[in-house]
Write a structure and sequence with these properties.
The chain is of the alpha+beta class. Helix content is about 45%, strand content about 20%.
Length: about 475
C-alpha cells in the first residue's frame, strides 16, 4: 500500500493539472519596447500582402507558378540556395543575440509571444485586469459571464481567421482571395489553410500560451548551450534582495534588517509563463523583462535604487568583470556579415536567365550525312525576367564546332521556360578523347548584359 501511495503521489506531481496564468498588466521601458515590436511585426504581417509593386503584389509566394515575388525581384526554384543562405543567417543571428543578451527573440519577436500579447490585450479589455479575470473565472456560470466569454472568444476567432486569411494571402494574390471570399468561391485548399491557421492562432495564443514555450518549443531546451557567464539575462540580485520581507514604505533595508526585496510577488504576477525570477535562471523564462519593469516601480515607491531585477550577467552578479566583446560574439558577427554580404551581392549581380542542358543519352553520338560527329542536346531556357527576350545561342570549345537548331534566335516570354533541341557537329579528326568539354552561350539580343555560359560534354570516337 505504501508503494502504491508513493506511486500515486509521484504521478500527481508529474501530471499536475495545468493552472491558468493570470498575468498582471505592467508598464515601463521594456513593456513599451514589446508594444513597439508587436505593432511593427503585426503591422508588417497584416499589411505586407496588400502592398503593390509594378501592378502586382509586392510580396507573393506563387507556388503553382514556382515564382517568389519580393518587391522588384522574382525568385525561381533555381534560386533556392538563397533561401539556404537566409536560413543560415537567421540561425547565426539567433546564436548571436542569444549569446549576447539571452532570449531576445522569445521575449520580443517570436510569433507565439507577439500573438499571445495581442490576445492577452484583448482579454484585458473585455474581462478586465488580473483580479477581475480571476473573480470572473471563479464565479458560477451566469448570463453576464457567458456574454463576456462569448464576446472574448468571438473577437479572438475573428482575429484568428483574419490571421489565417492573411497567411493564405501570401500564397494567393490577396485581392483575388478577398473577392473569392466575398463570392464564397474559395478553393478547398484555401478554405482549409484559412481555417487551420486561424484555429492554430486561436489555440496557441488564446489557450496554450506559455505551454507552447515551455513544452513544445525546442529552443527553450537548448538555449542554455549558448549562454555563458557574460550573457546578459534577466536576473534577480540575490545578495541585495535577501533576506526578503515586507516593511513600511521608505524604511531602509538596513533598519529593517532585510534585503531590498519586499516580497510583494508582483514579479511573479506579471510573468507570462508564471515563474518566480527570484528562484534563479530557469529555462521557462522568455526574457520579456516584465519583472524588471514592475520591480523598478516597486523600488521607486519604496525609495530604493532600481535594478534589484535587471538585465545583467552572472559575472556582474558575482563581482567579476563582464566581457561583452568575446570570441564567440566576434565569430558570430563575422559570419553574419559574410553571409549577409554574400546574399546581397548574389542578389544584386544575379542574372535573370538560366540555361539547363540535357544531352541525349539514348545515342552517345552519331555520324551525320556530311561525315561529322553529332551530339543532340535538349536545352531549357528559363527567362526569369518580367519582360520577353530574344536570345542568340552559340557554342564553342572545339575547333570547327557548329550548332544546328530550328530556333536561333530563341523567343522566350516573360517568366517562362522554353525548350529547344539542338545538334552540335564537329569533324571527328579534332577529337582527342572520347569525352570533351564544350560551352553553350546564351545572350539576349536586346540586352548584352543578359548572358549566361554553361558547359556540357561532347561524346565521340577517338581516331
Amino acid at each position: 500500500m505504501a508503494s502504491s501511495a508513493g506511486t500515486e503521489s509521484n504521478n500527481d506531481e508529474v501530471y499536475a493539472k495545468h493552472r491558468k496564468i493570470y498575468a498582471r498588466e505592467v508598464t515601463g521601458v521594456f513593456a513599451r519596447l514589446r508594444m513597439v515590436a508587436m505593432l511593427a511585426l503585426l503591422g508588417f504581417y497584416y499589411l505586407a500582402p496588400w502592398l503593390q509593386w509594378d501592378n502586382r503584389q509586392a510580396l507573393l509566394f506563387d507556388l503553382p507558378a514556382r515564382k517568389f515575388y519580393i518587391l522588384g525581384w522574382v525568385f525561381w526554384p533555381q534560386d533556392f540556395f538563397y533561401l539556404a543562405l537566409l536560413l543560415m543567417i537567421a540561425a547565426f543571428a539567433l546564436f548571436f543575440f542569444t549569446t549576447l543578451a539571452g532570449r531576445l527573440w522569445c521575449g520580443y519577436a517570436c510569433p507565439q509571444t507577439v500573438w499571445t500579447e495581442i490576445f492577452m490585450w484583448i482579454e484585458h479589455k473585455i474581462e478586465g485586469d488580473r483580479p477581475k479575470q480571476m473573480k470572473l473565472d471563479a464565479a458560477p456560470m451566469s448570463a453576464r459571464k457567458l456574454r463576456i466569454k462569448v464576446t472574448k472568444h468571438l473577437v479572438w476567432a475573428i482575429l484568428g481567421l483574419w490571421t489565417g486569411f492573411t497567411f493564405v494571402g501570401y500564397f494567393t494574390p490577396i485581392h483575388e482571395l478577398w473577392q473569392s471570399t466575398l463570392n464564397f468561391s474559395l478553393s478547398g485548399w484555401e478554405t482549409f489553410w484559412i481555417l487551420f491557421y486561424g484555429f492554430a492562432t486561436w489555440g496557441n495564443a488564446g489557450w496554450m500560451r506559455e505551454q507552447v514555450c515551455i513544452y513544445m518549443c525546442p529552443y527553450a531546451r537548448f538555449q542554455s548551450a549558448m549562454f555563458d557567464h557574460d550573457t546578459l539575462i534577466v536576473s534577480y540580485d540575490e545578495k541585495r534582495g535577501e533576506p526578503r520581507g515586507s516593511r513600511k514604505r521608505n524604511v531602509s533595508p538596513e533598519e529593517a534588517g532585510l534585503g531590498s526585496c519586499v516580497d510583494c510577488t508582483l514579479c511573479v504576477q506579471v510573468c507570462p509563463v508564471g515563474i518566480d525570477i527570484r528562484d534563479g535562471l530557469q529555462y521557462q523564462c522568455i526574457g520579456c523583462a516584465a519583472c524588471v519593469d514592475v520591480c523598478d516601480q516597486v523600488m521607486d515607491k519604496m525609495g530604493y535604487p532600481r535594478g534589484l531585477v535587471r538585465y545583467t550577467t552572472d559575472n556582474a552578479l558575482t563581482g567579476k568583470k563582464t566581457h561583452l566583446l568575446r570570441p564567440r560574439i566576434v565569430i558570430y558577427a563575422l559570419l553574419l556579415v559574410i553571409l549577409s554580404s554574400a546574399v546581397l551581392y548574389g542578389i544584386a549581380t544575379r542574372t535573370p536567365l538560366e540555361l539547363d542542358i540535357i544531352r541525349d543519352r539514348n545515342t552517345l553520338y552519331r555520324e551525320n550525312d556530311q561525315g561529322l560527329t553529332e551530339n543532340v542536346y535538349t536545352l531549357k531556357v528559363v527567362n526569369m525576367d518580367e519582360a520577353p527576350h530574344e536570345y542568340k545561342l552559340g557554342v564553342y570549345g572545339l575547333e570547327g564546332l557548329t550548332l544546328d537548331s530550328d530556333e536561333n534566335p530563341i523567343q522566350v516570354g516573360p517568366g517562362t521556360v522554353h525548350t529547344v533541341t539542338v545538334r552540335v557537329n564537329v569533324d571527328p579528326v579534332v577529337l582527342k578523347k572520347a569525352s570533351s568539354e564544350i560551352f553553350f552561350t546564351l545572350e539576349a539580343l536586346d540586352d548584352p548584359e543578359l548572358k549566361v555560359v554553361d558547359k556540357a560534354r561532347f561524346m565521340g570516337p577517338v581516331l
